[in-house]
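#structure-requests
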Amino acid sequence: MKLLTRKGLDWTDRFPSVAQSIAGLKAKTALIDGEVVVEDDNGISRFSLLQQDLTTGRQSRMVLYAFDLMHLDGKDMKRQPLSARMAALAALIRRGHGRHLRLSRSLSRPGPALLKEVCKMGLEGIMSKLNDAPYRSGRGRDWVKTKCSDRQELVVAGFAPSSADTHAVGALVLAFHKRGRLHYVGRVGTGFTHETARKLYRTLRSRERKTSPFKPVPKNETGRRKPVWVEPTMVVEVDFHGWTHGDRVRQASFQGVRHDKAAHDVVREVKH
């Protein structure tokens, strides 16, 4: 039994409760696509809560929502339509699973109406998939992710120390990759707990560099307190309310560090 990130990292030891539930399935071999989440008291998945539990080692709230099945007991399921794969996945999970594994069920409803309802509930968005399509890796026309707000991974290029605690970050300087170079998108200064701000400070201090990773230094960073520049290797997830005309994030809020994505893969995502 192995739990692999989308980049192929083995994180089985980070999710032992989930691994135990999957190991209880009545199958000799299976390859399942899913996502580990932690939900709040209202049943809404929160990436920040998952980050907290990963840091503290808390396992009780972690759940893997299974949403596709690519292989089962020697049979390649990828050529089967989504409807057949989901039926097989539902049967597999019904035959035995723990409380840390759930089936992600589908809804057949008009997209705009469903998205409106989902956004009112405070969810991140919806995934729309063709019911008769085979499984294909990567993004394409077979499935579309529609978000309620803009949310994506960005690269940390520097930080400004907190004015209240000199051993904590007050804001992060953010960027994504565009045509082989770092593209500045502004700062995020909210969404940190004090503990998180201190932990980010310790980590980023170890990656400090003397020169800016941007060429030239962004104008927005020359007229304010000079940030501490760092090697652009850390990836964070940020929630924000749209892009300005100059590709800057508006009202950004920090959600957590992404250890499963390489910095050089971070580009601006296209919202559908």
